[in-house]
Design brief:
five-stranded mixed beta sheet; 146 residues; alpha/beta; 26% strand
Length: 146
């Protein structure tokens, strides 16, 4: 259990599914990525010894600024098959999520990224994220919905 915990169980599914796609050369042409907020009462997570996600007020996508929240980032294939699910701090911006996702995909797929289209909202277009994609010897095609 200690090794499982050290490996980061919150991202285990994402790394496992993306690694399987890369290892078995499963065709994926379009990757869709986005985040959503999950609002609620998180009193149990406010204990002094809690060492998890930052539960806080942020931009509430469900229009509940009165509640604290966490974020969830999703990556799906063109068929809607979940490829990644990342728990995120409650105030993480989509631009930061796209940077995290871009690095994860680049580390996983390497040159195969050139054959894929990465689809995200307008927060995709920022210099740090574009630098991550540009590190590939052949840049991927990406599409941002503005």
């Amino acid at each position: 259990m200690i090794r499982f915990s050290e490996a980061g169980p919150e991202s285990l599914y994402t790394r496992l599914s993306l690694s399987c796609l890369a290892a078995f050369d499963i065709p994926v042409h379009r990757l869709h990525a986005d985040t959503t907020s999950l609002s609620g009462a998180f009193e149990a997570c406010e204990a002094d010894d809690y060492d998890g996600l930052e539960i806080c007020r942020g931009y509430s996508k469900d229009m509940r600024p009165d509640l604290k929240q966490v974020m969830a980032g999703k990556i799906v294939s063109e068929q809607g098959i979940p490829l990644g699910s990342l728990p995120l701090d409650g105030n993480m911006a989509d631009s930061s999520f796209n940077q995290l996702t871009a690095q994860l995909l680049a580390d996983t797929f390497g040159e195969r990224m050139r054959q894929m289209v990465y689809i995200a909202d307008s927060k995709l277009i920022n210099l740090p994220t574009l630098r991550i994609f540009n590190k590939q010897t052949t840049s991927p095609v990406f599409h941002s919905v503005i």
